[in-house]
Structure formats: C-alpha cells, structure tokens
C-alpha cells in the first residue's frame, strides 16, 4: 500500500516520525515498522529532506521547515485485528500497522482519503467520522485515528436501530445476502441483550457503532475491540460457522463498555511506543469472556448444552492448571505482553505457571456472579457490578474524544463491588481470588443453579497428558505438568520411555493400552532414558483422570428443586 502523509504548521525543531510498536487491544509488541520501506520525506519546497534513524521505529526529519510530506510503502498480508492485509480483494487496515505519525502532534485532527485501485468497486467501512465524500474521513486526534480500523473493499452493509442508536454490520464475505440478513438479526439480539445488562448504550462519537467483519477463507480468526467498532475475522462462513461467529460478536460488543469505556487506568491513554501492561485484564478480558456466552444464552442463541460447555470450560481450565498456585489473576494479566501474540524461541514452563487471563477471569466472573446471587437471594448479580463500573467510570466519558476521563484502578473495582455488596465481602473476594491464589469452591457455588462438576473419565487411570513422539521408545516432547504422577515420578522433557509396566512402548497408543489395564491407585514400573542417555527405573502411582466438566444436575439423575430452576432461569434464562 502506498501511503502519503502531510504534516503542516510545524513550529521548527526536528519532526519525529514514528511507526507504532503496539496496537490498542493487543498487549505485546508488534513492531509495525518492519514492513515499512521506500520512505521519502519531501519539504515545502518540493525537495527531498534528510532523515536520521534514531531507532528501528523512527525517522527523524532534522530540519523539516514549515511542512513535510512523507511517502512510504507498507506491506501487509494478514487479515485479523492487528495487522494490515492488502490484496486484490480488499485493503483491511489496522491503523497502527499502516500509519506513520509524528511525536507531539497527538491532539491534532487528521483527514484521510482512501484511494481505491483502478476499476475496483470498493467502499470504506470504519468508525472514522465521515467527510465530504465516500472516501474522505476525519479523526479528532491521534488516539482516535489509531483506534479506527478500516475495511476498504466490496463490503455489504446492514443497519438497525436500538434505543435511538444506529448499529451497522459491514461484512466482506463469500456468502449470500440472505445469509447475511439472518446473521444480522442474531447480531441485533446480542446488541439488545448486552444493552439490557448496562441499561443504556454509549454515545457513539461518529453517530454509529460498526461491526467490521471479514469472513473469508483466507482470513485468520480474530476479534478486536475499538471504541465505536470492532474487527471480527474468520476463515469460517456465516453458513458453516454461525455459532462461532456469534460468540465473537457477543464478546467484542461487550467491550464497547468493558475496556473501551470502563477502562483500566493502566491502558489509558494507550502508549503506541511501548508495551502496555495491565493487571486488570482478568476483568477487562476475563469478564467479557464470561458475558459473551451469557448474552448468547439469555438471548436464546445458545442452548443449555452449549452454555454449560462454555462456562464449564472456563472453570475446568482454572481448576486443573497448577499455574494458579504460583501466579494470581493480577499476575496472569501482567503476562499478556509475553503471551498475547508474543513469541518465544526458548522453552518456557508456562503450561505449569500460566493460565490465560481470559478463562481465568471468566472463571472468576462465574464465581463472583454466583456468589452475589447466592448471598442476596438473587437480588444482586454481577450485572449490578458491571452497571456500577459503567456509571462511575465509563458513562461520564472523556473531555477529549477517544479518551476516558475516569479510568479505574483495581482498588476502584473493589469499591464498586463493595457498593453493590458490602465492604467486607468485596475486600475478602479481592484478597483471596484477585490478589491472592485461592480458588473459589465452584461445586458449592454451582449447586444452587442445579449444576455439578463431574469427572469426564471416571475411573480411568492417568499419569498426565504427556505429548509423545514415536522414537526408538516413546519420546516425551514437552514437559509433563508438575502436578502429574509422571512428573512426580521423575519423568521430564526429552525423556524416552522404553518400558511401562514391563511392556515395550514406542507411541502414545502403546502407553494408552498399558494404562487401560490399570485403575487409579495402581503403581507401575517405568523404564526410561533421559536426554543424556542415562537409564532409570522408577515407579509411578496412577490417579483418576482429573479432567472435569460442568453438567446440569438433571443429567446425573438428580431432579431440580423449584429453587434451582428459578435460580438457573434468572441467571441464564434457560
Ligand atoms: Zn476481548
């Protein structure tokens, strides 16, 4: 993509042109400068100006004069919420991946003109403010500009109104108009359901909220929230992947309150030049991860089986992962710069020490909602907490567009919880489950709603979910988790298991066959060679496969009491 950016009214002094290193809503570094080349800076007199490279992300014009125009090319070929994708079918633009900006000019408005390729019948869908014609747009400042992705291509646009707000669904896809019409009806149900949780919708600055969706076989799966829009991408189609696509819609739309306006202070304003660390992602992402499936359930777009499966997965992830004993929910949130799209070349022990703040925060939301409902006889719910957060931190808005004037700290969140419950309960909950490493008693909390946690494989002997590659023997290709019998018996990464219970083994099937002959509590012999070749003989005591699932109590043969029925209906509308 060819980009040209003009900077005028420069007051003297060097002009520091920058490519962003991070993108709002992503928490690791992405180094968008890596795809920028053929950079030319032209002065007011039409002559090319000298630039220096102070660092890999910057081009400094030492003597810019009153105005400069910078021209560059930028490459992009990934359709998702973070990057740029330009191909004959469209230009899918995440602004940080495409736009060079200048330090110190953050408060200046920007005007954008999109120029389509010759003969392309493209239009622009974006949360940018509309301008004089269909290809011209404006942004009030840099924060807003960078937060405004654009889909520039053959998009189909649908529109609906709820409570005086206009919602647009702009989709670039390969399906039919009728499929899109049906899909948009479901999107509207989600918009109504989530609006009911907060009581009202934000005032969308350009006058509309826009869903920007690319459902294309060559797209990567993603969802990314913005103030007045969201980018949703998938290789699935409306016809084949409707439930998945709606799940992402429900998650991303909830963000137009939670994180975009109910905003952690740690992310406000978003710093484009460094990684943005937040200890509150268990709430910003995790609670959103809980409310997405909840909204689907309450609006009738997910049945009891689907909802139970999704919520159960959040709980199971946390219950069975030893990571929760070494990092709190707050600590997990602070890992995002390494895990949210970040890559490592070296081995990490994250399977033992890290749980994503999405399911972790989602499980905390389940526990908090059920606790509030339980202790108040259903009069107070997590919806009340979210509304309190919205009223105090989100709804007052910002004096500058694109900014939030009352972002919250973790202590603010505890105060809002105290307002809807009491100070002792709120403090205790935060100390134990947010700052601390305790795990809520999910079985006890789920019981009043008529759900149980059960073993997925009752009675099955288990020594750990080991990744095995067939060799001359069975190679353990990634470290067994520290809380598994295999690890406790001394097995580790790169060990080659030769004999199990006296039987020669060389594949995961061989190992499974041996384990099937045993029951939990049995102790069996293991012969293995470690990475140095040294051979050991140890004994491992098998346990019952710990994998759990959440199930409706009626599926285990117990019938629901009227109180359980009412609790469940009030919670899930099921
Ligand atoms: Zn999210």
Structure, explained:
With 574 residues, this protein is α+β, with helices and mostly antiparallel strands. It has 16 helices and 29 strands. Strands 22, 23, 24, 25, 26 and 27 form a 6-stranded antiparallel beta sheet that branches. Helix 10 (382-394) crosses helix 11 (410-420). The mean pLDDT is 97. Bound molecules: zinc ion. Residues 225, 251, 255, 285, 288 line the site of zinc ion (ZN).
Quick overview of this protein structure:
By secondary structure, the protein is of the alpha+beta class. It has 16 helices and 29 strands. It is globular, with a radius of gyration of 27 Å.
SSE layout:
Blueprint: E1 2-7, E2 15-19, E3 36-43, E4 51-52, E5 58-61, E6 68-74, E7 84-87, E8 90-93, E9 100-102, E10 110-113, E11 123-126, E12 129-130, E13 136-139, H1 142-146, E14 150-153, E15 156-162, E16 165-173, H2 177-198, E17 208-215, E18 222-225, E19 229-234, H3 238-254, H4 281-298, H5 304-319, H6 329-333, H7 336-339, H8 350-353, H9 357-376, H10 382-394, H11 410-420, H12 423-434, H13 442-446, E20 451-455, E21 461-462, E22 468-471, E23 473-476, H14 485-488, E24 496-500, E25 503-504, H15 508-516, E26 523-529, E27 535-541, E28 543-544, E29 548-552, H16 562-572
Parallel strand pairs: 16-17, 17-19
Antiparallel strand pairs: 1-6, 2-5, 2-9, 3-6, 4-5, 7-8, 8-14, 10-13, 11-14, 12-13, 15-16, 18-19, 20-29, 21-28, 22-23, 23-24, 24-25, 24-26, 26-27
């Amino acid at each position: 993509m060819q980009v040209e950016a003009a900077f005028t009214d420069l007051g003297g002094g060097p002009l520091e042109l920058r490519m962003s290193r991070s993108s709002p809503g992503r928490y690791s570094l992405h180094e968008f400068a890596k795809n920028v080349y053929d950079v030319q800076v032209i002065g007011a007199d039409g002559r090319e100006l000298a630039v220096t490279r102070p660092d890999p992300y910057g081009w400094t014009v030492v003597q810019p004069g009153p105005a400069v125009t910078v021209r560059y090319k930028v490459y992009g070929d990934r359709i998702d919420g973070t990057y740029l994708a330009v191909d004959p079918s469209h230009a899918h633009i995440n602004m940080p991946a495409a736009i060079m900006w200048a330090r110190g000019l953050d408060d200046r408005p920007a005007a954008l003109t999109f120029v389509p390729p010759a003969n392309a019948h493209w239009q622009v869908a974006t949360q940018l403010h509309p301008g004089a014609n269909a290809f011209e747009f404006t942004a009030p400042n840099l924060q807003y500009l960078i937060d405004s992705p654009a889909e520039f291509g053959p998009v189909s646009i649908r529109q609906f109104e709820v409570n005086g707000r206009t919602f647009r669904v702009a989709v670039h896809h390969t399906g039919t108009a009728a499929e899109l019409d049906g899909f948009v009806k479901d999107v509207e149900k989600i918009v109504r359901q989530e609006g009911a949780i907060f009581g009202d919708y934000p005032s969308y600055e350009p006058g509309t909220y826009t869903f920007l969706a690319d459902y294309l076989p060559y797209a990567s799966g993603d969802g990314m929230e913005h103030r007045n829009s969201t980018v949703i991408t998938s290789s699935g189609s409306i016809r084949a992947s409707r439930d998945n696509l709606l799940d992402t819609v429900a998650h991303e739309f909830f963000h137009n309150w939670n994180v975009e306006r109910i905003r952690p202070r740690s992310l406000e304003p978003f710093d484009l030049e460094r990684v943005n660390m937040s200890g509150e992602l268990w709430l910003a992402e995790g609670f959103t991860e809980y409310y997405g499936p909840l909204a689907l359930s309450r609006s009738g777009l997910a049945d009891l089986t689907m909802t139970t499966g999704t919520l159960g997965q959040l709980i199971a992830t946390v219950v069975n992962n030893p990571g929760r004993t070494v990092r709190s929910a707050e600590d997990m949130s602070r890992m995002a710069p390494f895990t949210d799209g970040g890559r490592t070349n070296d081995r990490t022990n994250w399977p033992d020490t890290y749980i994503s703040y999405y399911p972790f925060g989602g499980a905390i939301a389940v526990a908090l909602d059920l606790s509030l409902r339980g202790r108040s006889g259903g009069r107070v719910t997590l919806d009340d907490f979210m509304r309190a957060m919205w009223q105090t931190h989100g709804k007052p808005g910002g004096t500058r567009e694109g900014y939030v004037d009352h972002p919250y700290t973790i202590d603010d969140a505890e105060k809002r919880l105290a307002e809807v419950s009491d100070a002792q309960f709120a403090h205790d909950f935060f100390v134990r489950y947010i700052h601390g490493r305790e795990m809520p008693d999910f079985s006890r909390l789920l019981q009043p709603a008529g759900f149980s946690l059960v073993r997925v494989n009752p009675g099955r002997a288990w020594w750990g979910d080991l990744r095995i590659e067939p060799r001359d023997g069975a190679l353990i290709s990634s470290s067994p988790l520290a809380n598994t019998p295999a690890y406790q018996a001394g097995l580790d990464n790169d060990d080659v298991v030769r004999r199990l219970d006296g039987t020669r083994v060389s594949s995961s099937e061989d190992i499974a066959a041996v384990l099937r002959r045993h029951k939990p509590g049995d102790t069996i012999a293991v012969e293995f060679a470690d990475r140095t070749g040294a051979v050991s003989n140890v004994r491992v005591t098998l346990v019952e496969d710990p994998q759990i699932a959440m199930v409706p109590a009626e599926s285990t043969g117990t019938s629901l009491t009227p109180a359980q029925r009412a609790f469940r209906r009030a919670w899930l509308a099921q």
